[in-house]
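Task: fold both queries, return tokens.
Query 1:
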Amino acid sequence: MCPDRRDELDNDSAWCAVRGRLLMYAYLASPYSHEDAEVRDARYGVALAAVARLIDAGACVYSPIVHSHELSRRHALKSDAGFWWTYNRTMIRYAGRMIVLRIDGWDQSPGVAQEMAFAKQIGLRLSFIDG
């Protein structure tokens, strides 16, 4: 259940709203892939903190990094954006908006660029937050 603190958010219906049986959520795009595991771990930590802040503010949010980082590590799944693209594209398609987390590397990330391009293609609203 999402907290109901919409007064702290904008009035976009994609925040924590249930329309009939459809839950609207925000997709949090952020960079992850990197050859250095410490960089990937740091990016995961920043995304995790951003998700916590957004949930505390009343948003329903899905982060592919928060969702898949530990899955990849524990179950030897690939961690690159290409491997996760089919899954993430589905999550973007059903999101009510996309939030881009501006942390080091966000503007050079092929994964974030792909996510943003697809969001624009399907007419999804984009907004940005700092990490």
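Query 1 returned. Query 2:
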Amino acid sequence: MQKTETVTAFFGKDTEFEGKLTFHESIRMDGHFKGEISADGSLIVGQGALIEATMHISSILIGGEIHGTIIADERI
């Protein structure tokens, strides 16, 4: 993830979301997500986050817990 990127969306620690998520920039998740993520942007998984998903993204920075499959085009 480049240092010039800014987070354009934020899922707080008390957020729970289930479904399909698609985005094009950078988001940070500190809550619980279950489903599918498809993005040509960056995902930041904060400490305490729980992600249960199949992901195809550009890059991911993991500080929390991931259950699922990650395909990253650039970097994990």
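Both queries returned. Flag for query 2: The radius of gyration is 11 Å.
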